[in-house]
Amino acid sequence: MSVAEPVDIVAIGEAMVEFNQTSRGDERTYLQGFGGDTSNALIAAVRQGARGAYVTKLGDDDFGRMCLALWKGEGVDTRGVGIDPAAHTGIYFVRHGPDGHTFSYLRAGSAASRMQPSDVPEALLRGAKFLHVSGISQAISASAVDTVFHAIRVARAAGVRVAYDPNLRLKLWPLDRARAIITATIALADYFLPSIDDVRQVSGVEEPEPILDWCHRAGASTVVLKLGKDGSWVSTASGRTRIAAYAVDAVDATGAGDCFDGALLARLAAGDDPVTAAHYASAAAALTTTGFGAVAPLPTAEQVRKFMAER
Q1: Which of 77, 107, 108, 209 could make an S-S bridge to 53, C-beta 3.0–4.6 Å?
Q2: From CA 231, how far away is CA 240, in angstroms rounded?
Q3: Would you say 304 and 280 are in contact if contact means Cβ atoms under 8 Å apart?
Protein backbone atom coordinates (compact mmCIF):
# COMPACT_ATOMS: atom_id res chain seq x y z
CA MET A 1 0.00 0.00 0.00
CA SER A 2 1.31 3.41 -0.96
CA VAL A 3 1.93 5.71 2.00
CA ALA A 4 -0.21 8.33 0.25
CA GLU A 5 -3.15 6.02 -0.44
CA PRO A 6 -6.32 6.67 1.60
CA VAL A 7 -7.86 3.81 3.55
CA ASP A 8 -11.38 2.53 4.02
CA ILE A 9 -11.16 1.80 7.75
CA VAL A 10 -9.04 3.24 10.57
CA ALA A 11 -9.16 1.23 13.80
CA ILE A 12 -7.82 2.26 17.21
CA GLY A 13 -6.99 0.01 20.14
CA GLU A 14 -4.53 -2.41 21.65
CA ALA A 15 -2.96 -5.31 19.80
CA MET A 16 -1.55 -8.18 21.84
CA VAL A 17 0.39 -11.39 21.38
CA GLU A 18 -1.78 -14.42 22.09
CA PHE A 19 -1.04 -17.85 23.55
CA ASN A 20 -4.03 -20.10 22.88
CA GLN A 21 -4.46 -23.53 24.48
CA THR A 22 -4.86 -26.05 21.67
CA SER A 23 -6.41 -28.88 23.69
CA ARG A 24 -8.82 -29.08 26.57
CA GLY A 25 -8.19 -30.06 30.15
CA ASP A 26 -4.81 -29.71 31.78
CA GLU A 27 -2.70 -29.84 28.63
CA ARG A 28 0.15 -27.32 28.51
CA THR A 29 0.42 -26.80 24.77
CA TYR A 30 -0.27 -23.26 23.51
CA LEU A 31 -0.34 -21.90 19.98
CA GLN A 32 1.23 -18.48 19.60
CA GLY A 33 -0.94 -16.02 17.73
CA PHE A 34 -2.19 -12.46 17.91
CA GLY A 35 -5.18 -10.67 19.40
CA GLY A 36 -6.68 -7.35 20.31
CA ASP A 37 -10.28 -6.82 19.26
CA THR A 38 -9.93 -3.88 16.89
CA SER A 39 -6.73 -5.28 15.38
CA ASN A 40 -8.51 -8.58 14.76
CA ALA A 41 -11.43 -6.76 13.17
CA LEU A 42 -9.16 -4.70 10.95
CA ILE A 43 -7.25 -7.75 9.72
CA ALA A 44 -10.57 -9.46 9.02
CA ALA A 45 -11.64 -6.42 6.98
CA VAL A 46 -8.38 -6.35 5.03
CA ARG A 47 -8.72 -10.05 4.22
CA GLN A 48 -12.11 -9.18 2.70
CA GLY A 49 -10.47 -6.63 0.42
CA ALA A 50 -10.80 -3.43 2.44
CA ARG A 51 -7.91 -1.03 2.94
CA GLY A 52 -7.17 -0.59 6.62
CA ALA A 53 -4.90 1.36 8.97
CA TYR A 54 -4.25 0.69 12.65
CA VAL A 55 -3.60 3.25 15.39
CA THR A 56 -1.89 2.08 18.57
CA LYS A 57 1.37 2.04 20.49
CA LEU A 58 3.71 -0.90 20.91
CA GLY A 59 6.62 -1.56 23.21
CA ASP A 60 10.15 -1.59 21.82
CA ASP A 61 10.28 -5.35 22.31
CA ASP A 62 10.05 -8.63 20.42
CA PHE A 63 6.29 -8.85 20.86
CA GLY A 64 5.83 -5.38 19.41
CA ARG A 65 8.01 -6.25 16.43
CA MET A 66 5.93 -9.40 15.93
CA CYS A 67 2.76 -7.28 15.75
CA LEU A 68 4.34 -4.92 13.23
CA ALA A 69 5.45 -7.86 11.08
CA LEU A 70 1.92 -9.28 11.25
CA TRP A 71 0.29 -6.06 10.03
CA LYS A 72 2.81 -5.51 7.28
CA GLY A 73 2.31 -9.10 6.12
CA GLU A 74 -1.45 -8.56 6.07
CA GLY A 75 -1.20 -5.28 4.17
CA VAL A 76 -2.35 -3.11 7.09
CA ASP A 77 -1.20 0.52 6.98
CA THR A 78 0.96 1.15 10.07
CA ARG A 79 1.41 4.92 9.80
CA GLY A 80 -0.58 5.30 13.03
CA VAL A 81 1.53 2.84 15.06
CA GLY A 82 3.93 4.39 17.55
CA ILE A 83 6.73 2.80 19.58
CA ASP A 84 7.00 3.55 23.30
CA PRO A 85 10.45 2.47 24.58
CA ALA A 86 9.33 2.94 28.20
CA ALA A 87 6.48 0.42 28.05
CA HIS A 88 5.78 -3.15 26.95
CA THR A 89 3.50 -4.83 24.43
CA GLY A 90 0.63 -6.73 26.07
CA ILE A 91 0.14 -10.50 25.94
CA TYR A 92 -2.71 -12.82 26.91
CA PHE A 93 -3.52 -16.50 27.33
CA VAL A 94 -6.66 -18.39 26.25
CA ARG A 95 -7.74 -21.59 28.00
CA HIS A 96 -10.60 -23.87 26.92
CA GLY A 97 -12.86 -25.76 29.31
CA PRO A 98 -16.36 -27.17 29.63
CA ASP A 99 -17.84 -23.67 30.02
CA GLY A 100 -16.06 -22.18 27.01
CA HIS A 101 -12.89 -20.12 26.75
CA THR A 102 -11.32 -17.94 29.44
CA PHE A 103 -8.71 -15.20 29.15
CA SER A 104 -5.75 -14.17 31.31
CA TYR A 105 -4.04 -10.88 30.50
CA LEU A 106 -0.61 -9.33 31.10
CA ARG A 107 -1.34 -5.84 29.85
CA ALA A 108 -1.22 -3.38 32.80
CA GLY A 109 0.93 -0.38 31.87
CA SER A 110 1.22 -1.48 28.25
CA ALA A 111 2.38 0.88 25.52
CA ALA A 112 -1.13 1.02 24.05
CA SER A 113 -2.57 2.11 27.40
CA ARG A 114 -0.31 5.18 27.19
CA MET A 115 -1.90 6.48 23.97
CA GLN A 116 -2.75 10.18 23.93
CA PRO A 117 -5.07 12.26 21.70
CA SER A 118 -1.98 13.68 20.00
CA ASP A 119 -1.19 10.16 18.75
CA VAL A 120 -4.25 10.17 16.44
CA PRO A 121 -3.12 10.64 12.80
CA GLU A 122 -5.82 13.14 11.92
CA ALA A 123 -5.06 13.48 8.20
CA LEU A 124 -5.16 9.70 7.75
CA LEU A 125 -8.44 9.49 9.66
CA ARG A 126 -10.11 12.28 7.70
CA GLY A 127 -9.52 10.38 4.47
CA ALA A 128 -11.16 7.15 5.68
CA LYS A 129 -14.71 5.87 5.24
CA PHE A 130 -14.99 4.37 8.73
CA LEU A 131 -13.45 4.73 12.19
CA HIS A 132 -13.73 1.55 14.27
CA VAL A 133 -13.31 1.68 18.06
CA SER A 134 -14.35 -0.49 20.99
CA GLY A 135 -14.97 -0.46 24.70
CA ILE A 136 -11.61 -2.17 25.15
CA SER A 137 -9.98 0.70 23.26
CA GLN A 138 -11.40 2.90 26.02
CA ALA A 139 -11.09 0.63 29.04
CA ILE A 140 -7.32 0.22 29.03
CA SER A 141 -6.68 3.71 30.51
CA ALA A 142 -8.06 7.20 31.05
CA SER A 143 -5.79 8.59 28.32
CA ALA A 144 -7.08 5.92 25.93
CA VAL A 145 -10.64 7.10 26.61
CA ASP A 146 -9.55 10.63 25.71
CA THR A 147 -7.81 9.33 22.58
CA VAL A 148 -10.91 7.49 21.37
CA PHE A 149 -13.22 10.44 21.97
CA HIS A 150 -10.77 12.74 20.17
CA ALA A 151 -10.66 10.36 17.19
CA ILE A 152 -14.46 10.24 17.11
CA ARG A 153 -14.66 14.05 17.11
CA VAL A 154 -12.18 14.24 14.22
CA ALA A 155 -14.07 11.54 12.30
CA ARG A 156 -17.51 13.09 12.75
CA ALA A 157 -16.25 16.53 11.74
CA ALA A 158 -14.87 15.00 8.53
CA GLY A 159 -17.98 12.97 7.72
CA VAL A 160 -16.27 9.66 8.52
CA ARG A 161 -18.73 7.09 9.84
CA VAL A 162 -18.08 5.71 13.32
CA ALA A 163 -18.50 2.02 14.21
CA TYR A 164 -18.48 1.03 17.88
CA ASP A 165 -18.38 -2.37 19.57
CA PRO A 166 -18.68 -2.03 23.38
CA ASN A 167 -16.86 -5.35 23.93
CA LEU A 168 -17.37 -5.15 27.68
CA ARG A 169 -14.48 -6.44 29.82
CA LEU A 170 -15.22 -5.97 33.52
CA LYS A 171 -11.68 -7.03 34.43
CA LEU A 172 -10.58 -3.73 32.90
CA TRP A 173 -13.07 -1.31 34.45
CA PRO A 174 -16.06 -1.31 36.84
CA LEU A 175 -19.53 -1.62 35.40
CA ASP A 176 -20.68 1.87 36.44
CA ARG A 177 -17.79 3.55 34.61
CA ALA A 178 -18.15 1.22 31.64
CA ARG A 179 -21.87 1.97 31.42
CA ALA A 180 -21.26 5.73 31.49
CA ILE A 181 -18.53 5.71 28.83
CA ILE A 182 -20.27 3.18 26.59
CA THR A 183 -23.60 5.01 26.72
CA ALA A 184 -21.90 8.30 25.87
CA THR A 185 -20.17 6.67 22.91
CA ILE A 186 -23.30 4.99 21.52
CA ALA A 187 -24.78 8.43 20.89
CA LEU A 188 -21.76 9.28 18.70
CA ALA A 189 -21.77 6.07 16.64
CA ASP A 190 -23.28 5.54 13.22
CA TYR A 191 -23.04 1.77 13.62
CA PHE A 192 -23.39 0.17 17.06
CA LEU A 193 -22.17 -3.45 17.06
CA PRO A 194 -22.76 -5.03 20.49
CA SER A 195 -22.96 -8.65 21.52
CA ILE A 196 -26.12 -9.49 23.41
CA ASP A 197 -24.28 -10.44 26.62
CA ASP A 198 -22.44 -7.11 26.72
CA VAL A 199 -25.46 -4.92 26.10
CA ARG A 200 -27.54 -6.87 28.63
CA GLN A 201 -25.08 -5.83 31.34
CA VAL A 202 -24.90 -2.24 30.17
CA SER A 203 -28.64 -1.74 29.59
CA GLY A 204 -30.23 -4.06 32.14
CA VAL A 205 -32.53 -5.28 29.35
CA GLU A 206 -32.71 -9.00 28.54
CA GLU A 207 -34.53 -9.76 25.29
CA PRO A 208 -33.24 -8.87 21.80
CA GLU A 209 -35.98 -6.59 20.51
CA PRO A 210 -36.27 -4.49 23.69
CA ILE A 211 -32.46 -4.31 23.63
CA LEU A 212 -32.64 -2.88 20.11
CA ASP A 213 -35.17 -0.33 21.36
CA TRP A 214 -32.78 0.64 24.15
CA CYS A 215 -29.87 1.02 21.72
CA HIS A 216 -31.84 3.39 19.51
CA ARG A 217 -33.02 5.41 22.51
CA ALA A 218 -29.35 5.72 23.50
CA GLY A 219 -28.71 7.36 20.13
CA ALA A 220 -27.55 4.55 17.83
CA SER A 221 -28.61 5.00 14.20
CA THR A 222 -27.91 1.47 12.95
CA VAL A 223 -27.62 -1.43 15.39
CA VAL A 224 -26.22 -4.86 14.54
CA LEU A 225 -26.85 -7.03 17.59
CA LYS A 226 -24.70 -10.19 17.68
CA LEU A 227 -26.30 -13.27 19.22
CA GLY A 228 -23.46 -15.78 18.72
CA LYS A 229 -24.72 -19.14 17.50
CA ASP A 230 -28.24 -17.65 17.34
CA GLY A 231 -27.31 -15.21 14.58
CA SER A 232 -27.85 -11.45 14.70
CA TRP A 233 -30.33 -8.62 14.29
CA VAL A 234 -29.95 -5.60 12.03
CA SER A 235 -32.05 -2.64 13.15
CA THR A 236 -32.39 0.73 11.40
CA ALA A 237 -35.01 3.45 11.20
CA SER A 238 -36.58 1.59 8.28
CA GLY A 239 -37.00 -1.78 10.00
CA ARG A 240 -35.46 -4.88 11.57
CA THR A 241 -34.09 -8.06 10.03
CA ARG A 242 -33.09 -11.28 11.77
CA ILE A 243 -29.94 -12.88 10.35
CA ALA A 244 -29.48 -16.62 10.85
CA ALA A 245 -26.14 -18.05 11.93
CA TYR A 246 -24.23 -20.53 9.80
CA ALA A 247 -23.73 -23.98 11.33
CA VAL A 248 -20.11 -25.17 11.51
CA ASP A 249 -18.00 -27.52 13.62
CA ALA A 250 -16.63 -24.83 15.93
CA VAL A 251 -13.48 -25.40 18.00
CA ASP A 252 -12.64 -21.89 19.24
CA ALA A 253 -14.87 -18.81 19.29
CA THR A 254 -12.00 -16.45 20.16
CA GLY A 255 -12.29 -13.37 17.96
CA ALA A 256 -15.50 -14.42 16.20
CA GLY A 257 -17.25 -11.16 17.11
CA ASP A 258 -14.23 -9.20 15.93
CA CYS A 259 -14.29 -11.07 12.62
CA PHE A 260 -17.98 -10.22 12.29
CA ASP A 261 -17.23 -6.53 12.85
CA GLY A 262 -14.40 -6.43 10.33
CA ALA A 263 -16.23 -8.35 7.63
CA LEU A 264 -19.32 -6.17 8.13
CA LEU A 265 -17.30 -2.95 7.81
CA ALA A 266 -15.47 -4.24 4.74
CA ARG A 267 -18.74 -4.92 2.98
CA LEU A 268 -20.27 -1.60 4.08
CA ALA A 269 -17.17 0.16 2.74
CA ALA A 270 -17.67 -1.72 -0.54
CA GLY A 271 -21.22 -0.37 -0.80
CA ASP A 272 -23.39 -3.16 0.64
CA ASP A 273 -26.48 -2.30 2.66
CA PRO A 274 -26.39 -3.32 6.37
CA VAL A 275 -28.50 -6.47 5.94
CA THR A 276 -26.42 -7.81 3.03
CA ALA A 277 -23.24 -6.95 4.92
CA ALA A 278 -24.51 -8.74 8.05
CA HIS A 279 -25.29 -11.94 6.11
CA TYR A 280 -21.73 -11.91 4.81
CA ALA A 281 -20.28 -11.12 8.25
CA SER A 282 -22.23 -14.02 9.77
CA ALA A 283 -20.59 -16.43 7.32
CA ALA A 284 -17.12 -15.01 7.98
CA ALA A 285 -17.58 -15.23 11.75
CA ALA A 286 -18.74 -18.84 11.51
CA LEU A 287 -15.67 -19.79 9.48
CA THR A 288 -13.27 -18.22 11.96
CA THR A 289 -14.54 -20.49 14.77
CA THR A 290 -13.27 -23.58 12.91
CA GLY A 291 -9.63 -22.86 13.84
CA PHE A 292 -7.69 -21.87 16.94
CA GLY A 293 -6.75 -18.29 17.72
CA ALA A 294 -8.11 -14.85 16.98
CA VAL A 295 -6.20 -14.10 13.77
CA ALA A 296 -4.94 -17.27 12.07
CA PRO A 297 -8.41 -18.62 11.13
CA LEU A 298 -9.81 -15.29 9.88
CA PRO A 299 -11.10 -16.19 6.40
CA THR A 300 -10.36 -14.51 3.09
CA ALA A 301 -13.07 -13.12 0.84
CA GLU A 302 -12.67 -16.09 -1.48
CA GLN A 303 -13.21 -18.52 1.39
CA VAL A 304 -16.31 -16.67 2.61
CA ARG A 305 -17.91 -16.52 -0.82
CA LYS A 306 -17.22 -20.21 -1.44
CA PHE A 307 -18.68 -21.09 1.97
CA MET A 308 -21.84 -19.04 1.31
CA ALA A 309 -22.28 -20.51 -2.14
CA GLU A 310 -22.23 -24.03 -0.69
CA ARG A 311 -24.98 -23.28 1.84
Answers
A1: 77
A2: 14
A3: yes
3-state secondary structure of 116: coil
Pick the closest to residue 253 from 280, 290, 223, 217 (CA basis): 290
The residues near 12 (Cβ < 8 Å, ≥ 6 apart) are: 38, 54, 55, 56, 80, 115, 120, 131, 132, 133, 137, 147, 148, 151
pLDDT tens track for 253-271 = 888 999 999 999 999 999 9
Tell me what percent of the chain is helix, strand and coil, each rounded to the nearest 5: 40, 25, 35
pLDDT greater than 80 at residue 98: no
pTM of the complete model beyond 0.90: yes
| C-alpha count within 13 angstroms, C-beta hemisphere, residue 75 | 15
- With 90 as the cut, is the pLDDT of residue 14 above it? yes
Query: If we measure between CA atoms, which residue out of 14, 121, 116 comes closest to residue 58?
Result: 14
Hey, what CATH topology would domain 9-302 get?
UDP-N-acetylmuramoyl-L-alanine:D-glutamate ligase (3.40.1190)
Q: Cα–Cα distances in Å, from 152 out to 137, 157, 158, 191, 256?
A: 12, 8, 10, 13, 25
pLDDT of amino acid 3: 47
DSSP letter, residue 299 = P
Contact 33, 155 (CB under 8 A): no
Nearest to 88 by CA among 57, 54, 117, 53: 57
| First-to-final CA distance of the chain | 34
